[in-house]
Write a structure and sequence with these properties.
- The protein is an alpha/beta fold.
- 47% of the residues lie in helices and 10% in strands.
- The chain has a six-stranded parallel beta sheet with strand order 2-3-1-4-5-6.
- It starts with a strand and ends with a strand.
């Protein structure tokens, strides 16, 4: 068996990937792919990491956890998703992005050390990520959330390089959350590992949340004329319809943070673009781009 850990980050897909895969548990299980409900594993794995303190789980603990998590006697793949695997939101920023994340992921892999694992991580422009993190933690001010962090110094490439250094045996797939509408079918496939040609119920529900109903209806009709294998044609169609019918409040981040000007946001975005070039050069990282 192989475990696919979808590890976040916070404020990216907001569990849309997981909800789609859960909706398709039946057909996926027929292919040997398990998608357990989050209540089966999130607290259990968190508690196991605390109990183990970085050590390897013994066979008894592994068997007990697998019995709790799995809904079948055997599987070839299991998808576990939680944006707090690396840290709860209040610990995600401490002068860098997820400073304890790589070590927590190593502890996660030691719960089932004999099972092969993969990590899947969506990243987001700090110009959108930080306002979203502040909005998510309504009981904390912007200053409390950033904890002295310099937003201009944040680099996802540094986190990803550390994840690879601490977990060199675990493949890591990365994509930009901003690209998700264009690469959504590819993301569902690489995370679940379902067979090519598999039709997932609700695979386009994500697009329905960021477009006007009229635009989505027209896009769905247009997508029906595109062969599933023609990835580029689908991306062009989605991009074109989003340009015309996207809901601004769903695709644009309202920035109202102390000291943040339009020029400052542009500098953050330029740094993010340069960071993507660094990520593309990190060994052992599969970068999915639009």
């Amino acid at each position: 068996m192989r475990i696919a850990y979808h590890i976040g980050a916070h404020c990216t897909d907001e569990e849309k990937l997981l909800r789609c895969l859960l909706k398709n548990r039946g057909p996926l299980s027929e292919q040997g792919i398990l998608v357990p409900g989050p209540s089966r594993y999130r607290v259990a794995l968190r508690d196991a990491m605390v109990q183990l303190k970085g050590e390897f789980a013994d066979e008894a603990m592994q068997a007990s956890l697998l019995e709790q998590i799995m809904e079948a006697d055997a599987a070839k793949r299991m998808v576990l998703s939680w944006d707090s695997f690396m840290a709860f939101p209040q610990w995600a920023l401490r002068r860098s992005l997820y400073p304890n994340g790589p070590e927590r992921l190593r502890a996660l892999t030691r719960i089932f050390p004999q099972i092969e694992t993969e990590f899947f991580l969506a990243i987001r422009n700090p110009a959108g990520f930080l306002p979203a993190m502040v909005a998510r933690q309504k009981d904390r001010s912007y200053e409390d959330v950033v904890e002295g962090t310099d937003p201009l110094a944040l680099r996802w490439s540094e986190l990803i390089a550390r994840i690879r250094s601490v977990n060199p045996e675990v493949p890591l797939t990365v994509w930009c959350d901003e690209d998700s509408p264009l690469i959504w079918p590819e993301l569902l496939q690489v995370i679940s590992g379902h067979a090519p040609g598999t039709v997932l119920e609700g695979a386009d529900d994500f697009l329905a949340t960021i477009m006007t109903p009229r635009g989505f209806t027209r896009l769905k009709a247009h997508l029906g004329t595109i062969p599933p294998a023609d990835v580029e044609a689908r991306r062009r169609a989605v991009a074109g319809y989003l340009q015309r019918f996207a809901l601004p409040e769903q695709v644009e981040t309202e920035v109202d943070l102390p000291g943040w000007t339009e020029a400052y946001v542009e500098r953050l975005t330029e740094g993010y673009d340069r960071d993507m070039e660094r990520i593309a050069d990190i060994p052992g990282v599969r970068l999915i781009t639009a």
